[in-house]
Amino acid sequence: MASTMDDSRHKDATSSSTCFSHFCSSALRAKTLKSSSSTNNSSDGLIRRLGVFDLILLGVGASIGAGIFVVTGTVARDAGPGVTISFILAGASCVLNALCYAELASRFPAVVGGAYLYAYTAFNEITAFLVFMQLMLDYHIGAASIARSLASYVATIFELIPALKGNIPPWVGHGGQEFFGGTLSINILAPILLAVLTVILCLGVGESSAVNSFMTAAKVVIVIFVIIVGSFKVDVDNWSPFAPNGVKHIFTGATVVFFAYVGFDAVANSAEESKRPQRDLPIGILGSLLVCVILYVGVCLVLTGMVPYNLLGEDAPLSEAFTSKGLKYVSILISIGAVAGLTTTLLVGLYVQSRLYLGLGRDGLLPSIFAKVHPIRHTPIHSQIWVGIIAAVLGGLFNVHILSHILSVGSLTGYSVVAACVVTLRWKNNTGNRVFSKCISTWCEGVLCIFLVACCGFAAGVLYRFGTHFIFMIVAVVIAIMACAALCFRQAYSDPPGFSCPWVPIVPSVCIFFNIFLFAQLHYEAWIRFIILSIVSVGIYAFYGQYHANPRLDETIIYHMAPEEDRH
C-alpha cells in the first residue's frame, strides 16, 4: 500500500515536472526568419497592392481623427493649453518608436505581425503573445471608443435636418442610454457603423485602401482649413496660464493622447500587402507620423487659443469652438471632416487587428480559423469579422469615458518591446555575443541592462507622479545612463539590411525609458488592467497556446506580388 502511494506521488511529481518543462521549452522558443521571403502565387495569401503614398495615407488615416476630433477637448480640460506639449511629448516618443519600427519593418518586409512578430523573433514565444494581448486590448477598446464618437458626429449631421433636430434619442447616437448606474450605455449606431466598415474591409485591401485614401485626403484638407481660419480667431490671453493644473497633468495628458499616434504601427502591419516593403515601409512609417505631429500641434494651438480651456466641449470640441465664434459654416465642415477622420481611424484600426490575428492564427497561438485567407478577396475574412464583432459589442454596450481610462498601456509596453528588439536583433548578427563568460552570457547581460533601463524609467515616472524630491529622479536617470553605457561598450553591433535606426542602442534606450516613464503616469485602472491581462494571457498560453503553437520555422511565407504595371 505504501509502495503504491509512493509510486503515485512519483508519477504526479514526474508529470508536473514534465508539464513545467514543456511550458518552459515552448515559451522560450523563438522564431527564425530570413530578411526576405520567396514569393508564391498560391491562392491562400495576401496580395501586394499598397504603394508608398497608400502607406502614408494609411498612417495618417489611422491617426488624424481620434486625437484632433475627440481627445483634444478632454485632455485640454486638465492640461489646459499645455495639451500642445502633451501632443509634442507623445509625438517625440513615437518618433523614437517609429525609427525602431522602420528598421524592423525593413528587416522583415514580407511577413505580417508587426510588434508580435518582432518580439517572437528577438525574444521568445511567450513575450510575443503577451505583446499581442496588451496591444490587442488597446485596439479593441480604441475601436469601440472611436465608434462611439463617430456615432455622435453622424447624429449631429443628421440633426442638421430640421425634422430631426432634437428628436434623435440618446440610445441612437448621442452618448447612449445608461443602465445600472452608467455601467451599461446602449448605443445602436456605433455597431451599425462598425458593421459597414467591416464589410468594406472584407471586400479587399484595394477597395478599403481607396476608401481610406479618399477620406483621409478630405479630412487633411479640412484640418488645414481649420488651422488657417481658426488662427484669425485666436486670443493669446487664452494661452495663459499655459499649464493651469501643473506640469504633471501635461505628462498625464501625453499618455492619453499617445494612442492618437498609432498610425505608424498600422503601416508596419501592412508588410505583406506593400508593393515594395523594404523601401516603402520606413517612408510610410516616418512620413505619416511627421505629418500627424504637425497637424496635431497646429490644431491644439488654434483650439485652445479660440476658447478658454475650461469651456471646451468633450464630444465635439472643434465644432463647438467655431460655433461660439459665429462661424457656423466652419463647424458644419468640421463635423463632416470629423466623420471622415474617425471613419478612417476606425477603418485602419480594424484592418490592423485582423492582420495581427492572422499572424497568430498562422503560428497556432490562436485557432486556425484566424489564419484563413479568402481565395478571391485575399483578406482574412474570419479575423476581420471577429474583430468587428468585438468592437461592436464594446461600442454598443459601454461608455467611452470608462473605456478610455485604460488606453495606452498596451501601446507603451508594446513599443518598448519593439525598441528592445532592435537592440537584441543587432546582437544576434554577431555570433560572439552568444559565448558564455564565467557567470553570465553577454546576451543575458544585455537583456538585463535593457530591463534596468525600463525599471529606471518606471521608477522616475512614479517618483515624479508622487512629487518626491527631484534628487531621487536624478538617481534613476543616472542608473539608466549607466545601463545604456554598458549596452554601448559591452556589446558588439552590426548594421542591418535596409533602413537602419540611428545611434543604437542610445535611441532605443531613450525610447524605452520615455515610454515606461509615461506608463508610470497612467491611471491606476490601467496598471491593474496590465497586471490582470498579463496573468490571463499566461493562462491562455499555458492551456492552449503552448500545445498548438507552430512557429513554422522552416516554412515559406506566401504572398502575392502586385501586377508589374502597378509596381511603378
Automatic annotation (TrEMBL):
Keyword set includes Electron transport: no
GO cellular component: membrane
InterPro entries noted in UniProt: AA/rel_permease1 (IPR002293), CAT_C (IPR029485)
A single MF term (Gene Ontology): amino acid transmembrane transporter activity
Keywords: Membrane, Transmembrane, Transmembrane helix
Domain of life: Eukaryota
PANTHER family: CATIONIC AMINO ACID TRANSPORTER 9, CHLOROPLASTIC, INNER MEMBRANE TRANSPORTER YGJI-RELATED
Family: Belongs to the amino acid-polyamine-organocation (APC) superfamily. Cationic amino acid transporter (CAT) (TC 2.A.3.3) family.
Protein name in UniProt: Cationic amino acid transporter 9, chloroplastic-like protein
